[in-house]
Amino acid sequence: MPESRKLRMGMVGGGRGAFIGAVHRMAATLDGGIELAAGAFSSDPEKSRASGKDLFLPADRVYGSYAEMIEKERARPAGEKIDFVAIVTPNHEHLPPARAALLAGFPVMCDKPLALSLAEARELRALVRKTGILFGLTHNYSGYPMVKEARRRVASGDLGRIRRVVAEYPQGWLASPLETSGQKQAAWRTDPARAGASCCVGDIGTHAAHLTEYVTGLRIEELASELTTFVAGRALDDDASVLLRLEGGARGVLWASQVAIDEENGLNLRIYGEKGSLQWKQEEPNTLMLKWPDRPREIVRTGANYERLSREALGATRLPAGHPEGYLEAFANLYKDFAAALLEGGTPDVPTVDDGVRGMAFIEACVESSKAGGRWTKLQGGES
Amino acid sequence: MPESRKLRMGMVGGGRGAFIGAVHRMAATLDGGIELAAGAFSSDPEKSRASGKDLFLPADRVYGSYAEMIEKERARPAGEKIDFVAIVTPNHEHLPPARAALLAGFPVMCDKPLALSLAEARELRALVRKTGILFGLTHNYSGYPMVKEARRRVASGDLGRIRRVVAEYPQGWLASPLETSGQKQAAWRTDPARAGASCCVGDIGTHAAHLTEYVTGLRIEELASELTTFVAGRALDDDASVLLRLEGGARGVLWASQVAIDEENGLNLRIYGEKGSLQWKQEEPNTLMLKWPDRPREIVRTGANYERLSREALGATRLPAGHPEGYLEAFANLYKDFAAALLEGGTPDVPTVDDGVRGMAFIEACVESSKAGGRWTKLQGGES
Amino acid sequence: MPESRKLRMGMVGGGRGAFIGAVHRMAATLDGGIELAAGAFSSDPEKSRASGKDLFLPADRVYGSYAEMIEKERARPAGEKIDFVAIVTPNHEHLPPARAALLAGFPVMCDKPLALSLAEARELRALVRKTGILFGLTHNYSGYPMVKEARRRVASGDLGRIRRVVAEYPQGWLASPLETSGQKQAAWRTDPARAGASCCVGDIGTHAAHLTEYVTGLRIEELASELTTFVAGRALDDDASVLLRLEGGARGVLWASQVAIDEENGLNLRIYGEKGSLQWKQEEPNTLMLKWPDRPREIVRTGANYERLSREALGATRLPAGHPEGYLEAFANLYKDFAAALLEGGTPDVPTVDDGVRGMAFIEACVESSKAGGRWTKLQGGES
Amino acid sequence: MPESRKLRMGMVGGGRGAFIGAVHRMAATLDGGIELAAGAFSSDPEKSRASGKDLFLPADRVYGSYAEMIEKERARPAGEKIDFVAIVTPNHEHLPPARAALLAGFPVMCDKPLALSLAEARELRALVRKTGILFGLTHNYSGYPMVKEARRRVASGDLGRIRRVVAEYPQGWLASPLETSGQKQAAWRTDPARAGASCCVGDIGTHAAHLTEYVTGLRIEELASELTTFVAGRALDDDASVLLRLEGGARGVLWASQVAIDEENGLNLRIYGEKGSLQWKQEEPNTLMLKWPDRPREIVRTGANYERLSREALGATRLPAGHPEGYLEAFANLYKDFAAALLEGGTPDVPTVDDGVRGMAFIEACVESSKAGGRWTKLQGGES
After folding, report:
1. What's domain C145-318+359-370's superfamily in CATH?
2. Which residues in D have their CB inside 8 Å of a CB on B?
3. What is the mean pLDDT of residues D206-229?
């Protein structure tokens, strides 16, 4: 067994006022195996410095750009330099730092979606394959114990062949033109230059698509969609309805919206097979409902002391049942698995660059199908 | 004020072993204003007679056919003959008795969907218009108090302009080929000769479509659909996914399934407007959830003692809050309103023959769009 | 098999403005086996007459007093006179009509609690025993299918020996002095002359106590209580907390309140045994939750198609799962069982006069214990 | 504004195999303001060393006893030595390290209950008062945002004068004699020498009592209880029912159980006032239900964007609504407030040594009342 040690993370993005950067930091450090060691928190060096100070980093580990961070960290001695790079910038700033990190030999954890476009995503995939360096993508909802349990249940055949899938991701925070008020999160997500071809599908629809594939183990092959922009003046979609055809004949509906008032972060998934069904809701993440044709529904709970609960679910759980674990804990599971793979090798249960390419293909197919009046459109991400 | 009296109902269908006939009888008589006075409970005269005896009817009010019932009841004196006809047969047996009843001057309450085809539905609509006789269609879910409250909330503008609708109707009872086992309800619903062009859309999708239009007050203008038959050997669809475009620019998803294992009777509706949202679930019918952008969600409850609760909701409620009213009570509200209109005139809050035509148009558009690879298809029922 | 026929009910109480009388009528007639044939709806003959007319009764079956009804109905011929008497008056008017009915040979369905006092209750029990006539008490919550399922589960040993019980019955409708506004339901329930020794325990606490004994099959042996009157000027308690000791060593808490704002009719029961637990809530009556030490919770649903669901639960169900049955349907189950016993003999699954005596003993023990500073007090109703 | 810096925590207890120590570490470090700097993780020096290594501590900051840690850390220079001590040992090992830490001038965060007995608790309170050093007690459930919102709502008078309280804390993990199997958590909690006078009341009942007082702002003045030991051979209670009398006339029920099968960690609280009610459940911690006499129930949610949500709730929230925060995040709020007070002064929103004394008084009153046959017993902790 190799000597264990605390891994050092270098962060790109996540300066003052950012949302997801703080999430990554809390998630990465929750289990005590990772520490924030360096950062280029903003493309504005002054802001980067101030953010680094907030985070109690020594001044010489706070950089004015990702390029500087990667260059200087690479030069540090083995026992001091960062072990991996976390990228938490808007979509258009995923590829450049990821490329630089990989070329410098640093493993990467990257926020989703993978890139600004399918073409960029493919470039990144090619680089990951070429370098053979570990690359993770934070489709964080796959980190929940009950999502892992759901995946295991499907994989073990408990539900039989899958027939129907319903994936939903309603939010309401963009029901009004928040981006015109200077709200930073809204501004970049509705800006094609920074977000890419889609707002709603890109930001949340891809989570739903990833979750669908993760749990069912089936690829989305074709889709027919209608994207809508409800808020006047918005440059990208804020609502999407998608019909799905999956491998093996399963059919489904996926819808996402950012204008569904007072929906908070309502990602949920229902899967119906020939022998049983399951249901999971992100806002009540510690419950997985299983449904059967001839016996009562079962409520499976995170951390419960059952005769049968998957190793994967138990391994993603820190507390006894009834001590709610939430969004940060699920996010932390990705970092925990990533860190273990860095130390011990193996394939972590973390979404990959391939998942990221499929996510970009999903986005682009949604946009294309909607423009073509809902024509059934194949996803172009499966090829190598 | 006219003298009140108990109305006499003559029933077509609903003999031994039927499901919905018993529901109509319990619903019609619940409030004490209607009694079962006559019936042609089966096309088999022997079975009709036995059923009539079960129901404590005198032998001379039990008939061997609807034609006989209508003819003989018409001939009875005013204080004795039936006041209206309830039709509770499978779809292919809606038009003939309805036509006969109308031509004989009897008001009609008819189970849904209206007929076997859009063409039949139009014929019936023409006859209703020509005769001017009261005709009700039992899209019973519109009878729930909280559905009426939802409709009022939308109509009053509380939610603002409607943007998105999600209507679902999952069931699981046809997940296996039940129709091959002799189960009567499954047999006729999966038989094109008795059910029409669709099983899933016809039997339950139309309820969801009606509920959508009833609550939003907006017509479904266009749809794109995919109907699927998951159970091998079944002649009609048992699963349907539909994208909707409604009047005024609202978009939506409607899906229904009869193979969603352990879904019971999961009709539910979510409506998102510019100012607020609402949600209602048939299986928890006494709760209406209202959602707002800037204040806590509200749980509106049947029978509650609020400063504000619509007259329509209160009028559809028999018991104080917390005394659950269910499916039969909602169904009974249609009969209660229908009876009041028979006695006192006025337009009852009961789905009409026009709703029935729209329902058939919905079914046929779903079938057509799905056959055409999901092409956006207009509903053809709105014209006179 | 005896000839079936529709049974004729004569009602005492339940005139215009009454609540529970209308409930009894809807419940009794729901299944088509009972008709309202006569009534003494009010001690005011004029009001009785008007109420009878509302209910479409012939004038000669509407009486000015229960005594008149019982006398005249007794004199009618067998094929015409009422088959039983339903008593739906306030508590102080239970014993007199019940006694008269029994002495005249009429079976009785009586609202709860049984009488104004334990002494009265014992008198009635003695009379029932002496006459051998069927007597039912409408602790209606025992009519729910999932309550019957719960009882079966305990009886079958699934939960093992019972350790702990929690019974709750919160309501909020008496949080303000409603009785001073002329509200009839509040007025008599807070009046010792009409309600007896307790308001809260008498009106709803007894339901919770009966449900506890019905489901566990264990008698409440001793209790320690604190009754409180929160609304100034009220003559009786409007809130009660009770510690319970049951047969076999089980311990419990029972609390009821009429001042718990916006609690509607929140009767619920949790039972914990050595091998498993269960939970049932009246406001979501079609769900029974079962809990196990080593496997997932199970959600048992009314009308579901399980390999295992008790005959008792299925027999109390009219509709397929997911078609909610509510308060009236559960209430109707008592009448259905009562009617079947009248026609066919046997012991109906309807609370008895013995349950009624125990209910009065429970009320009096609560009052006595509370007055004695919460002293543990034995129930005095078990002896013959 | 003082220079911010990362605070250094020294931990007593929490070695390999411990439960609550890991919780304290994750909670303390979650927000990045505290680091684990030293520890005496076990009274077994070897085990302490191994635990320190697991936690990546340098060998010279891992101690063989709390006494050694306090002595040596005290001697370190200001920029290096620990800033406070966290005590996460069983109950009998709270007073000795707390006393030592206070006498050495170290602030203390101590797990609950405060001590082994009321006498010990008073000693500790005297020492805290005398030294004036900050002392926090981890009644962690008060750290939830919706608990803080509930407290604010009561304090602001929204609910009016409080009438009734129901506090529950059911668990099921001790339904069988787990302590005989070598399970460490069960072993010490059921051992009077390490747990004190009570198992169920001491371990979880005190949480419920603290939560009741924290939210209502009212002290429990008197109680009547029945403690039970259901598992044969167990030396302490595993189940407790308590009637409460609070300041100002409020009445309540508090019950806790460790034998309620498949209850996980079901702490919950319902409070009923003259103007409104509220309800909170630990297992769904991000929802607070408010109930009103004349308008719909309101669902208040953690992180929501309301016009009105208390500063206290918002300050205890890290993520937008719908991103569930759980047990660790609530626990972390105590540490965050504690750390802020250490740096900036002021009174943190963290339970105090006075709360701890009241908790011990609650435990002892429960034991005394139960032994005295449920006699109403005053709490003895309020005096100085």
Report:
1. Dihydrodipicolinate Reductase; domain 2 (3.30.360.10)
2. 290, 293-301, 304-308
3. 98
